[in-house]
């Protein structure tokens, strides 16, 4: 399977859009939890860390089957 440059560019745009949505959601939840609800900053940090760790596990598991 070969991809043309336009297809690679389109895939990159999708990844960029998903990344920007995650950044906006994470920063909003961080501000809401820390500033508005007066929760310790460790809580949103742990939640983001758990999300990133589970994402890395899925990707690493997918490479084992190649």
Please outline what is shown here.
The chain has two helices and no strands. It has 66 residues and is mainly α. It has one domain.
What does this structure look like?
This protein has 66 residues and is mainly alpha-helical. It has one domain (5-63). Helix content is 82%, strand content 0%. It is built from 2 helices and no strands. The chain has helices at residues 5-36, 42-63.
Features of the shown structure:
82% helix; mainly alpha
Give the topology, please:
Elements: H1 5-36, H2 42-63
Distance between the termini: 15 Å
- The amount of beta strand, in percent, is under 5%
Q: Order of helices and strands, N to C?
A: HH
**What is the average of the pLDDT values?**
82
Q: How many structural domains in the coordinates? A: 1
Q: What is the approximate shape?
A: elongated
Q: Could you describe the largest sheet, including whether it forms a barrel?
A: none
Given as residue ranges, the uncertain stretches (5+ residues, pLDDT < 50) are none
In DSSP terms, counting alpha (H) and pi (I) runs of 4 or more, how many helices?
Answer: 2
- Please give the oligomerization state of what you see: single chain
